[in-house]
Amino acid sequence: MDDDIVTRASAVRNGRTKGQIDYLVDVGQWVRLRDGIYCPRAALDTVSSERARHRLLVLAAQRCLRDESVASMWSAARLHGLPVPPTCDHEVELTRETSRVRRYPGLHVRVAALPPDHLASLDGVIATSAARTVVDLARNLPLIDGVVVADAALHQGLTTKVDLVSVVKTCRRWPGAAQARGVVEFADGGAESPLESRSRVRLVRDLGLPTPELNVVIPGRDGRPLARVDMYWPEYRTIGEADGAMKYGGGASTLFREKLREDDLRDLDYQFVRWTWWDMEGRAIQVVARIRRAFARYAA
Description:
Strand content: 15-25%
């Protein structure tokens, strides 16, 4: 797809006039990605994912700068397939090692060291590695968002705790390094969704619950797997389920099966507590109280 990116200079070299280029843009045959950088509409229409679209914007920005800038921060996160907070969706992020940076609309260029082992090639785009991307975001985002990204990178097998610790050591004197260290220490690849990650931060780190086991398979009476649960406190025989809306995408039948599963678990004397995105955003204290009551019921 990067072969479909056309610069004004290359178009002129191939015989196009300025008027012809402007006409192609005006009639919609070419789409302007940045000043002087275009993509044919036919090629752009074949790009179906947000990740692929962002890749095009990164390539266009790199062509615009014409230097060794690499995709970083949330641009790199998108290219790695990591979750990006909605607040980070407004521009392309690049990092370079030199300090002369001209301002461009919709483009944020940072200056930082880029050791070779902190770089990766992602579908033809040079970007920060998964580990460096996680640490950069953990240094700059709120801690809870950093944990979401770190958990996802570990869960997807894009990096390891060892790699993350190594990058944190390299960046130990950089702004936000202490927070990044805390994110890496807390991160757990067992979390399977942003809601599970955010729940761990709020319930365990902020509000003092004991650390649960993540995504545990609970056996039935016959010893065969009965259910896989988001969080489990074995010492209290208590199950916690972080219910994102996606769990019920199958409609009423899915909701009914989920209810039967919960009934089966309660019949086996498991305590069961559910919560939602809304609970974590505004009612986390109440969720903790419900979980502690479940602990007490089991202990009684």
